[in-house]
Amino acid sequence: MRYGILLLGAPYSNQAAHSALRFARTIIARGHQLDSVFFYHEGVHNAARLAAPPQDEPHLVDGWAELQREHGVKLDVCIAAALRRGLMDEEQAGRHGKEGHSVERPFELTGLGQLVDLGLRCDRLVTFAP
Amino acid sequence: MNVNKANEGMNDSNIAHTSITPPSATGELLVILGHAPHGSSLLREGLDMALVAAAFGRRVSLLFMGQGCWALQPGQGEGALGQKGTQSTLEMLEMYDIDNIMVEAESLERLGLESSDLVLSVSVVDAASVQQAIASHTLVMNF
């Protein structure tokens, strides 16, 4: 089956992001296809490249990146939700006159149109919310 | 879509009779709004989602349930916290051709709201119609 994931929860604040990552790994392990994870609302914090959790906790940002590297899962971040929360890639940082950037590949800033497409393209869009 | 029709024969003791079935036209996307308009940005970001989908030519329906019904009360504009509020977004729905707007009857009842007080013309629907709406849309998103 073809899946998409919509993640609305911030990492390390509630269960949503942890559950979403475990769900993502499980559906892939069971032979399903995961097209994309879309990060929206507080879920955009999962794309923070500067995240440095203690070593004895799961590293969620690296976990998402690994999904992309090993299974080609797209990591799409809503640009409007990200910018207002201080999450931006190098291009946006330049545009907004900011020093440094907080989002990098494999996460990509994109629009909500991608989320609509994902939902309609996949057999299942599963939402993880706070 | 006709609020007055929906309220004909309204009887507080039997909420099912106040309800009408949703318009027969099904849509591609149903956005369910269950959070209050203030306190979190979930409802506003759900509405943004609906507008973007409509802008991309998708047929969008909205369903307000639970605390989400508060968004339909007048006066949900900019507040003391500097949040934008949701009223201005609701006013744009018509421009985006989003006219299938449903409100769950029991939620309205529980919050003490009357459909005639709401800022939009809505269909008041019962639980069975909510099921039908969910089943008849290709994609359902919960905010």
UniProtKB/TrEMBL annotation, chain A:
Coiled coil: none annotated. GO terms for biological process: tRNA wobble position uridine thiolation. Its main location: cytoplasm. InterPro entries: DsrEFH-like (IPR027396), Sulphur_relay_DsrE/F-like (IPR003787), Sulphur_relay_TusD/DsrE (IPR017463). It is found in: Cytoplasm. GO terms for molecular function: sulfur carrier activity; sulfurtransferase activity. It comes from the Bacteria. Keywords: Cytoplasm, Transferase. It holds the Pfam family DsrE. One of its GO terms (cellular component) is sulfurtransferase complex. Belongs to the DsrE/TusD family. This is Sulfurtransferase TusD. It comes from Halomonas cupida. The gene is tusD.
From TrEMBL, chain B:
InterPro entries: DsrEFH-like, Sulphur_relay_DsrE/F-like, Sulphur_relay_TusC/DsrF. NCBIfam families: PRK00211.1, sulf_tusC_dsrF. Residues 1-20 are annotated as: Disordered. This is tRNA 2-thiouridine synthesizing protein C. It comes from the Bacteria. It comes from Halomonas cupida. Belongs to the DsrF/TusC family.
